[in-house]
Amino acid sequence: NAGVTQTPKFRVLKTGQSMTLLCAQDMNHEYMYWYRQDPGMGLRLIHYSVGEGTTAKGEVPDGYNVSRLKKQNFLLGLESAAPSQTSVYFCASTSNLLGETQYFGPGTRLLVL
Amino acid sequence: AQSVTQLGSHVSVSEGALVLLRCNYSSSVPPYLFWYVQYPNQGLQLLLKYTTGATLVKGINGFEAEFKKSETSFHLTKPSAHMSDAAEYFCARRAGTALIFGKGTTLSVSS
User: Dihedrals φ, ψ of A22, to 5°?
Assistant: First the structure.
């Protein structure tokens, strides 16, 4: 049982390049989330999904797109990276039960030059 | 707007001293509340959570937190700090299907 895994762990991009971050969970969770963490800002929700084939915007969705084609995977895409997207990205998942714990992946550190 | 406020971005204690990390929330109804810990270069790990029932919640590594509705607080405590407790701590509340996080408190422990 690997829990929540994220690929890649670290990436350097040039401004304007695109990339996809992959999140996978093996706990059969319905809900999945993408957060970004910036110094002094805590974690802020980018997008989330409440089930396969569904996605919704969070607090800071601009510049990102997501897809949930399979229940176990949640992809975060950057179509045209900007330096403001330099951050650490965390994926999380949880069941659809109220009060259930969100389980976090180890994070992806992204640097946009 | 729903929010979580952590008082003090940095707390320093000596090994063996009491740890107190403060968290206040805004909500019109009692929320589900969580404390997470993040060690350097790692993801977030759940310390404890409050959903319903007993207002004093015990978590891992000797931490506990008390939900006080009248004060809209959920402060995290540990009677005796250990060097291994040095990390960043996040308070969070459930908002719909997602979590709203505080900005975090970095705990430093000196010998």
Answer: -110, 135
Residue pLDDT, tens place only, B28-75: 677 889 999 999 888 899 999 998 888 899 999 999 999 998 899 999
Report the distance separating Cα A73 and Cα A25, nearest Å. 7
A50 with A31: CB under 8 angstroms? yes
**Closest listed residue to residue A110, CA positions, set A89, A92, A90, A82:** A89
Look at A45 and B32 and tell me if their CB atoms are within 8 Å. no
Token representation of residue A22? 């992959």
Q: Mind telling me how many Å the CA of B30 is from chain A's nearest CA? A: 12
* Amino acid at site A55: T
Q: Identity (one letter) of the amino acid at A101?
A: T
| pLDDT at residue B26, as a whole number | 87
Spell out which chain B residues touch chain A, with contact meaning CB-CB distance below 8 angstroms: 9, 32, 34, 36, 41-46, 49, 51-52, 90, 94, 97-104
